[in-house]
Design a protein that fits this description.
This protein is 34% helix and 17% strand. It is of the alpha/beta class and 305 residues long. It has one domain: 3-Layer(aba) Sandwich (Aminopeptidase), CATH 3.40.630.10. An eight-stranded mixed β-sheet has the order 1-2-4-3-7-10-8-9, with helices on both faces. A two-stranded antiparallel sheet has the order 5-6. The termini are far apart. The relative contact order is 0.14.
Amino acid sequence: MKNTIIALVVIIVAVGAYFYMRSPESPMDAPTVPETTTDTTAKTDTPKTGETTAQKKTGQSVIGVSVEGRDINAYRYGSGGATEILFIGGIHGGYEWNTSLVAFQAMDYFEKNPSAIPANVTVTVIPVLNPDGLFKVVGKVGRFAASDVPASEDVQISGRFNAHTVDLNRNFDCDWQSSAKWQNKTVSGGSAVFSEPESQAIKAYVENNKPGAVVVWYSATGGVFASSCHNGVSAETNTLTQKFATASGYPAHQSFDFYATTGDMVNWLAKSNVPAISVLLTNHTDTEWSKNQAGIEALLKYYTK
């Protein structure tokens, strides 16, 4: 009998211990708290498709969308100075593809040389104002190489226009005409002034941001051209023309008079009282970066306060 009682006590104690150890408050089942550690690994965002890490560091924004739905991007550099210098490439898409390449080179320069931008200056680059025309030729969105450009002149010419077959540099509000001229060819200036989403995008950008100076790259004559729209060349535009031309070695011109143009963007800027110049590269293949770097640096120096 005594042995039976002892056995029962042992069983009861064992069962009680088992249920105690399985209870939520049991130290054996308490959640393990990891040691606090400091992660010293640098965190970097993965760029989106078509977006470089350098672009993420800048103030990148989409200012509009093309006929076929491609973004028109603007890239901002500097510490936020009140005076904005705006550089624009690629208004004639794949026909003047080297104007986009020189704009991309300018972006690389600003990224690598932030101290070149004065504290009172903000620089903005719109490298491709006609993304549909560029895509038609190079088959890429954003960055591309000269090797991506087909040799066919007909293909390159077809990329001059947007997806509505409008010459965007004939769609602005200075002497606009629906039937416009490019050299000895008749081209479309659009159904109305600012009829195209690309020209609407730059119009809205200029009106909202009021840049202090605008430089637009074209090709291919080799020169710096002042802007005006029957109101004469402003003193500031004349200064920009001379500064860029002297530093770059391009000849300076008071107007573009090789053939009549209507609806020109830089002349609309002049009409809007925005100092603006056209920088025409010498041919359709070279970016002439050393010339343009010198011109850019001259403008930055001029606007330094």
